[in-house]
């Protein structure tokens, strides 16, 4: 199985020769959309949730309900257009005094996380924007790190380069310039990275 870029809407990616799917009396094709597992609907569920359903009871045979068609055709067929996220909402927890102030910014689903934050007036850099302080979202400097505390499943997977750069940091940390947002996400800006930055004024 695989999913779309939002890590939802799971579909059949490959059918291995002589597998249960290959030998099934009911024809299964690559591209078929997964709708339910053992009677539990999973249309539009995050891939992590689908994986949980797949491993819920290893002693039981799995029964799948599939739909042959595109994601849009599936949604139209079941009348669930509400599953299509058209907006992404990012709530940034910004340090303010001894606590945090929450700032929420909305944008089109699939928008770049750094761009959403910067356009909303949220500072993602420990130093002010400028020629010698950050790369302005070109994925070169690694200074726009955020801590995604909720909604990580509504972001794209880390690339090899991003994962390599963040390998010594908590799994929740992202380079905001590398992350696309497809739903509601909550994050902390300027998290502790263990790295020292020079402050400019």
From TrEMBL:
Record carries keyword Transport: no
Record key words, sorted: 2Fe-2S, Iron, Iron-sulfur, Metal-binding
Pfam families cross-referenced by the UniProt entry: Fer2
Lineage, uppermost ranks: Eukaryota, Cryptophyceae, Cryptomonadales, Hemiselmidaceae, Hemiselmis
InterPro entries: 2Fe-2S_ferredoxin-like_sf, 2Fe-2S_ferredoxin-type, Beta-grasp_dom_sf, PDZ_sf
Listed GO MF terms: 2 iron, 2 sulfur cluster binding
Domain 2Fe-2S ferredoxin-type: from-to ranges: 88-193
Stretch forming the signal peptide: none
Name this polypeptide is given: 2Fe-2S ferredoxin-type domain-containing protein
């Amino acid at each position: 199985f695989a999913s779309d870029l939002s890590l939802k809407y799971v579909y059949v990616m490959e059918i291995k020769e002589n597998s249960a799917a290959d030998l099934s009396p009911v024809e299964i094709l690559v591209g078929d959309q997964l709708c339910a597992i053992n009677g539990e609907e999973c249309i539009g569920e995050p891939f992590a949730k689908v994986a949980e359903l797949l491993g819920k009871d290893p002693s039981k045979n799995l029964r799948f309900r599939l739909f042959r068609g595109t994601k849009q055709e599936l949604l139209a067929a079941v009348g669930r257009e509400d599953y299509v996220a058209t907006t992404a909402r990012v709530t940034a927890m910004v340090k303010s005094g001894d606590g945090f102030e929450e700032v929420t910014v909305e944008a089109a689903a699939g928008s770049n996380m750094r761009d959403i934050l910067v356009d909303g007036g949220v500072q993602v850099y420990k130093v002010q924007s400028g020629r010698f302080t950050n790369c302005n979202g070109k994925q070169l400097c690694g200074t726009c790190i955020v801590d995604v505390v909720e909604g990580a499943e509504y972001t794209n997977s880390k690339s090899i380069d991003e994962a390599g750069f963040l390998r010594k940091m908590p799994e929740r940390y992202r380079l905001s310039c590398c992350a696309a947002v497809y739903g509601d996400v909550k994050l902390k800006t300027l998290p502790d990275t263990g790295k020292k930055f020079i402050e400019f004024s």
